[in-house]
What does this fold into?
Amino acid sequence: MGQESRLRDEQRALAERLNVQLPANRLARRQRQHDKRLAAKSDQRRTYPATYRATIAIETLPAEAQPRETVPVAVTVTNVGTALWRAHFTPETDAHQVRLGLQLLDTASRVIDKDFARLDLVRDVGPGASCRVSGTFTAPVAPGEYGLKVDLVAEGVTWFEPVGTPAEIRPLRVG
It folds into this structure.
């Protein structure tokens, strides 16, 4: 019998002798501590939150465009995280839509427009799977030198770059 068990038995015996009720919170606290030790060994304790990570490979993104020109873009993205990327928002499961996002940058790589353009995934993408995303965006109105940052975004949750995905940045000359 361990020292902790002996002390608990002595406390109970003394409480019975003095006709005193031991505080329930002390017993409950001991039970919670015991539950934590069990939980640390359970499989449920070892599950981790889903991660949003990707590799991004730009296939088509012209380096030059005219103001307000429709510019084609094609990118292959690979899910290297553990989260399932939903192509559409699902209210029943509160699953967030993952989309390709383009951010417009100035020549010093500062963000001019964080929500410059979005492109939808064509299907759900599970861990380890890839998907080709293609579409168009409208070039900025003002002529000049810009950068385009290509990243993914789990709408309402996070952009992928801050959680470990290297975003791709490409120059764009408008004019």
Notes: The CA atoms of residues 11 and 17 lie 10 Å apart. The helical segments are 3-17, 24-41. The first strand starts at residue 54 and ends at 60.
